Automatic annotation (TrEMBL):
<dbReference type="GO" id="GO:0016740">
    <property type="term" value="F:transferase activity"/>
</dbReference>
<keyword id="KW-0808">Transferase</keyword>
<dbReference type="GO" id="GO:0005829">
    <property type="term" value="C:cytosol"/>
</dbReference>
<feature type="domain" description="Glutamine amidotransferase">
    <location>
        <begin position="24"/>
        <end position="176"/>
    </location>
</feature>
<keyword id="KW-0315">Glutamine amidotransferase</keyword>
<dbReference type="InterPro" id="IPR044992">
    <property type="entry name" value="ChyE-like"/>
</dbReference>
<dbReference type="InterPro" id="IPR017926">
    <property type="entry name" value="GATASE"/>
</dbReference>
<dbReference type="Pfam" id="PF00117">
    <property type="entry name" value="GATase"/>
</dbReference>
<dbReference type="InterPro" id="IPR029062">
    <property type="entry name" value="Class_I_gatase-like"/>
</dbReference>
<protein>
    <submittedName>
        <fullName>GMP synthase-Glutamine amidotransferase</fullName>
    </submittedName>
</protein>
Amino acid sequence: MLIGILQTGQAPDILAEQSGDYPDMFQRLLADQGLEFRTYRVLDMEFPADVAECDGWLITGSRFGAYEDHPFIKPLEAFIRAAYDAQVPMVGICFGHQIIAQALGGKVEKFPGGWSVGPTEYDFGGERLRLNAWHQDQVVEKPAMAEVAACSDFCQNAALVYGDRAFTVQAHPEFKDDFVDGLMKTRGKGVVPDALMAEAGARLGSEIHDQTIAERIAAFFKAPRGAN
């Protein structure tokens, strides 16, 4: 099964030297799931010719806001709506989670409650899973067709499922602790409150359930879909 990675942002150069860029992280996360990958740098306006060019689509995180005016935002929203209508499965992570929601009628904004950083617990229908987070923006109003799959005290719409058409997660299962630590030392300085970063740093090293989410992403992509 060929998954197209729609790259909407990139890792800081100094961190990418060790961790690779976002598509590399997703390929490592899903390495044992029997999937193949092709990357499209949509942030540079490199879009697939058609929503059927791959068997599924994965939209990465980004430092950009879904509500900001960047050249790739509107074309990406149109692509999302076309993929949704064509029943080509989509997975969105962080920015990907947000832009899918926005494209399908939800609302994304810079959350006045601040940032979520580092290992964070989420309630997936009674199952507590810990994942690395790095965001201030969040989905504050979900699209009508979406159902909440996970929440936290900080983020009501932490994961959403759109039938068999999209599965999206606000947290970053692809982020390892060393990458989060690097983000705190690079992008976090002067942006994320020092006290919050210190608390997040103290949680690094705790168990992260990234492979649980990897298995759910793969299962979602591979689920049988009949023609409706």
